[in-house]
Amino acid sequence: MKNSNIEDIERLLSLPRTVTVDVFDQYVAVQLRQNEDQRAQITQLEQQISELHNHVLLLSVLVKQRYTIPLQSNQPKEEQHILYTKQEVAIKFRVTLRTVHNWIREGLKVTSIGGVVRINQMSLKEFMETKKNKKNPFPH
d(Cα 14, Cα 11) in Å, to the nearest integer? Predict the structure, then answer.
């Protein structure tokens, strides 16, 4: 990793301390005074803030998936990092999203990361094993 990348990350992480609401409000006011089409300027600013918000959420999910959840888990390390969305589980097992919702109601364990439901590979494997055993309690 380059020093410039590290400096960029450190600047990003220090933003809440340096860019207060008052400072940002002043910035917006100046931008609006300098631009004749204020509506376009506001739309562009909202888009930039939305992109920044999505990027920060992605960074947060990365930290939670790779570092926070594994610290709280007893699962083998290689299986701690594999998390699926409900849609990915539906595709993997060729079922509908409704079926995945039903599985969750039936006991499939999920984790919420940044408000998004994720399903751990090990939890999915355990759930499918119990589901298989319930369907065929007397295997031949």
Answer: 5
- The residues, any chain, with a CB within 8 Å of residue 1's CB and separated by 6 or more, are none
- Residue 140 inside a domain? The answer is no
CA distance 91 to 124: 13
Q: What is the pLDDT of residues 8-45, one digit of tens each?
A: 999 989 988 889 999 999 999 999 999 889 999 999 99
CB 33 within 8 A of CB 40: no
Regarding whether 52 and 86 lie in a shared domain, the answer is no
User: Could you tell me the residue range of the domain that residue 20 belongs to?
Assistant: 3-71
Residues 6+ apart with CB under 8 A from 79: 120, 121, 122
Task: Check pLDDT > 70 for residue 82.
Answer: yes
Catalogue the E-assigned strands of the chain: 83-84, 111-113, 116-120
User: What's the pTM value of the predicted model, to 2 decimals?
Assistant: 0.49
Within-domain flag for 65: yes
The total of structural domains in the chain comes to 2
